Amino acid sequence: MSDPSLEINRRDFMHRAAGAALGASALSAAASQAEQGKGGGEKVIWRNKQADMVYCRLGRTDYMCSRLAAGWRGNNRLKKMLLERGVNYFDTARTYTNGNNEKELGELARKYRDRMFLTSKASGLAGYPRLTFEPGQGAKAAETYTRLLEESLGALKVDYLDGYYLHGVSEPWVLETEEIYAAFEKARKAGKVKHYGFTTHSNVPKVLAKAIEVEEKGAIKYDLIMAACNPNSWPERKDLVAKLREKEIGVICMKGTGQIRQATGPRVRKMLEVADSLKLNEAERAYAYLLHIADFDVLISEMQSVAHVEGNLKLPGMKLASGDWGRLKDMVLAEQGGACHHCGRCVEACTEGIDVHDILRYHSYYHQYGHHEDACGHFRDLGYDPVAACSACGRCSAGCPAGIDLEAVMRDMAGRVL
Ligand code: SF4
Ligand code: SF4
User: 329: which residues sit within 8 A by CB, 6+ positions away?
Assistant: First the structure.
């Protein structure tokens, strides 16, 4: 099983490096140019290094990862554009695009496998779209993990994955399931996967706190964590993410734009003038915040048009005067003040067992991302009518730090699938 990565001595590099500083090469030659280390020591691994991209070492994977990563949506023509511009992290999941996304990405991945850090996710196991095991059912979960990994490799038609995530963990205890980790270790030794990870987009602070505890116990090692975070939820993630990075766990930011509240008032209008002069749209402003102010290792984005790709590509290497950074920060926080924190308090508050946060997520798919079919499909898959089940007690909205009217969200979604 070949891994034609470029290896160089880590001491020769700063944590973050622009490809240009290392002598960029064209796509046709990028992956095949080996750079000699200066002997011994720890190594970092390069793939698809390009002049204008900024890279960082992704935790203890030692992989030099583009700070912009390609998420699920967007066709292979757009993904090839990203590859040509130095993006080297490509992500998918077992269930994306009705189970066809791995197959589609596989067509690109097989051609350019040696230029990619390729990850997928075990969906239908750990939380997304459903948690399918209970405490004490680790053996069953391990079997499912192994089956899903084989299915992912088969759909992608590649020999190995760089990372395979437990998809959508919201229950902290899931992270301590030793049997799944043993299944990962077995697959790793067989050369089928390199790094263990999980994603989380609900109950995120508690799940990240558990990840720190698991890491400190030492029996299970998560190398990669993909966590939902937007500028509004960053303050409550900041210390957790710092601790994870201290422990050399690669942290990837997903869902970087929240529900956008329109900026108003003279102060914000003034800031909008600054943003206009920088030529950044709302989503790009949020991403710039997460890459440069929150300083996540990597930000993952689903890029669905050439304009979207071009807009995002300029962000990792973006430079601003310090005063403009301050104005951008103020503005993003004002704009994103209504964004969900993915904290899970609404779910805890609901005595009727309604997964209020998931319903908000489907609402975002519908209104924010325009993914109408997926949003309604997920809502139907709940298998119950949350509006009928709701006692209108108001506890979910009352405890929501973002001040979201969750009953209105449920009613809106219910109205769309009738
Ligand atoms: S208002 Fe409805 S959804 Fe919200 S906590 Fe009460 S019962 Fe649950
Ligand atoms: S309580 Fe509010 S901020 Fe927290 S997950 Fe629920 S909707 Fe999001």
Answer: 289, 293
Please tell me the number of the ligand nearest to residue 339's CA: 2
Q: DSSP string of 170-205?
A: -SGGGGG-HHHHHHHHHHHHTTSEEEEEEEE-SSHH
Q: How does pLDDT run across 12-59, given as a tens digit for each residue? A: 344 456 654 443 333 333 343 334 333 344 689 999 999 999 999 999
For 84-99, the pLDDT digits (tens) are: 999 999 999 999 988 8
pLDDT value at residue 167: 98
Pull the structure tokens for residue 384.
């119950």
Residue nearest atom 4 of ligand 2, based on CA coordinates: 343
**275 ligand 1 Cβ < 6 A:** no
Residue 111 is inside which H or E element, if any? helix 101-112
Q: Is the CB of 359 under 6 A from ligand 1?
A: no
Ligand 1 nearest-atom number relative to CA 397? 4
Tens digit of pLDDT for each residue in 105-126? 999 999 999 999 999 999 999 9
At which residue do the structure tokens 């066809």 appear? 100
Ligand number nearest CA of 395 is: 1
pLDDT for 3 equals 38
Specify the 3-state DSSP secondary structure of 306.
helix
Q: Which atom of ligand 1 is nearest to the CA of 346?
A: 5
Beta strands, E only, 201-327 = 224-228, 250-254, 298-301
Residue nearest to atom 2 of ligand 1 (CA): 390
Residues 60-77 have a mean pLDDT of 94
Ranges assigned E (strand) in 277-399: 298-301
Domain range summary for the chain, segments of one domain joined by +:
53-326, 345-417
Q: For the domain 53-326, what is the CATH code? A: 3.20.20.100
